[in-house]
Structures are given as structure tokens and as C-alpha cells.
Amino acid sequence: MTVPVAELRSLLRELLSELTPTVVICALILACVILVVLFAPLIAPYGEGEILTNDSFALQGSEGKARPGSTLLLGGDFLGRDILSRLVYGARVTLSVALAISLLAFLLGTTVGFLAAAIRGRADAVLSRIVDALISFPSIMIALIVVTSLGSTFTVLIITVALIDATRVFRVARALAMNIIVQDYIEAARVRGEGLGWVMWQEVLPNVLGPLAAEFGIRFTYAILFISALSFLGLGVQPPHSDLGLMVKENIQALLYASAYDDLRYALICISPALCIATVTISVNLIVDWFLKSTGASLPEEL
């Protein structure tokens, strides 16, 4: 039973009618973040690695001594680079990597999960046990071992975290598909002679898009936090590239300056990347919660 276009339009109108001020604010925040990601070179006042001053942790509004006429609106980092520019480029790197991880994880997890639900039998049992075994290991430990062995490149990071994330997506996709695959219209499609691919694409997928969309939002925030954690540990995005987690690690000494000089403005140099991470993840989670409540969609109870 495919979802008609008219029904999708009706659902969209219903969602728009149930917008709350909180959701609107979160959506505006995410829209601004998307613009920053897309147009980072145009928005950032200075280059990603451009050194503007010889002073470590220059305060907000300081003049860049190494470049006359420049102003450090949000202060400077430990090398004298502009924090605002680093935040703009760091948001682009962090969110782009997290999006690539989420898309790859969903492509793999959903495909294999649907196949396991459709085929069942021994293949389903073997795949499920393999996934259970992988999930039993701490995700961060697996990532640290792989990244340390193969190197911390963008390709290694994306594939490693996506494979870890795909195990969670597999369980969700399989459970959702198992609930749909037993319906009468699926059996009718099989009797008509429709192939497995057609059934999965035309019958199963349209009926689980809501829960999968919500799960995508959750997995996206997880990827942001995971990449930021790896970067903070020194095994994620590597210099000279900017990353929100890496920025926290690089500028953590600013907290000592704040304590020594009794000036919280130094602390903001370190805290501002963390605030960006928190703002994006909280906004996405609030929108996901609203989406689940508005559509009546839910993830399988067994998860």
C-alpha cells in the first residue's frame, strides 16, 4: 500500500498547523546553521587558519596585531586565529561529516534490515547475531581501535562511524519491516508476482518513513557528538582543519586564563564550540520529538 501524493500533502499541512513556538525557533536555528555550512567561505570574516595576532586567547573585540585593521569579534584561539571564523568552518566540517555518516549508515542499515525481515530464516538469524555481537562492544572503543590502526582521515572516520551506526539502524529497520511484512497487502503483492525489491521499495518503505525519519534525526545528533568526542580525544578531524570538538580541545587552556585573571570572557573562547554543538543537537532532538508526536509515529517497542 503505497502512500499517495495527496496523503503526503495532507500530512504536511497537518504538521504545519501543529507548529509550536519552540519548533519554529529550532527550525530557524537549523536554517541558519545550514546557511553557515553552505556559505562558510563567504560568511567567515577571515581564513580558517589565518593568524591575526601573536597573543594566545585574545579577548573578544581585540585588534589583530598581525593584521592591521582586523578585529577578533569572539576572541582568538591559542594560536591567535579568529574564533568566529574557526566556528564557521568547524561547523561546516562537523555537520558535513556527521551528515555523510548518517546517510551511509542509513543506506547500509536500512537495506540489510529490510532484507533480513523479508528473507527471515537462517540468514536473518545470522545477521541479527552479528549485529548483536557488534553492539555489545562499546562504540567509542571500536572507533578508537580502527582509527588508531588506519589513520584519522575523513574517509576512515566516515566509514568507521557509519558502520558502527548502521548496526543500530539495522535493528530499527528490521523491526519496522517485520511489522509491515506480515500485512495482507504485502502477501497480495507477492501473489501478483511482484519482486522482493518492488515490495520493499513500493510497499514497505513508504509505510515506515515516519519512524525512519525520526531515527535519522537521532542518529545525526549521535554522529555529531561521536565525531566531536573523537576530535576532542585527538583521533577525529585533524589540524589544520577546524572541528567543533577539536576547538574545545585546542582552547581548553583558556579556562585556566579565566581562573587566573578572574575573567569569564576567556572561558567563552573554549565554551563557544561546545555551545554550538549543544544548540544543534538540542534543536534537532526537539524537532524529532515534535515530529513523532504530531504524526503519531513511533519506534518499535522492542527497541
Helix and strand succession? Answer: HHHEEHHHHHHHHHH
Radius of gyration: 23 Å
Helix content: over 70%
Q: What does the largest sheet look like?
A: 2 strands, antiparallel
Strand content: under 5%
Q: Tell me, what's the shape? A: elongated
SSE class: mainly alpha
Strand order of the largest sheet: 1-2
* Average residue-wise pLDDT: 86
Distance between the termini: 25 Å
Any overview of this molecule?
The structure is a single chain. With 303 residues, the chain is mainly α. The protein has 13 helices and two strands. It has a two-stranded antiparallel sheet. Helix 4 (83-119) packs across helix 10 (209-232), helix 5 (121-136) crosses helix 7 (154-181) and helix 8 packs antiparallel against helix 9 (196-204). The longest helix has 37 residues, at 83-119. It is elongated and about 75 Å long. The model has no long low-confidence stretch (mean pLDDT 86).
Would you summarize the structure shown here?
It is built from 13 helices and two strands; from the N terminus they run αααββαααααααααα. It has 303 residues and is mainly alpha-helical.
Strands, helices and their partners?
Blueprint: H1 5-17, H2 21-38, H3 40-43, E1 62-63, E2 71-72, H4 83-119, H5 121-136, H6 139-150, H7 154-181, H8 184-191, H9 196-204, H10 209-232, H11 244-250, H12 254-261, H13 264-295
Antiparallel strand pairs: 1-2
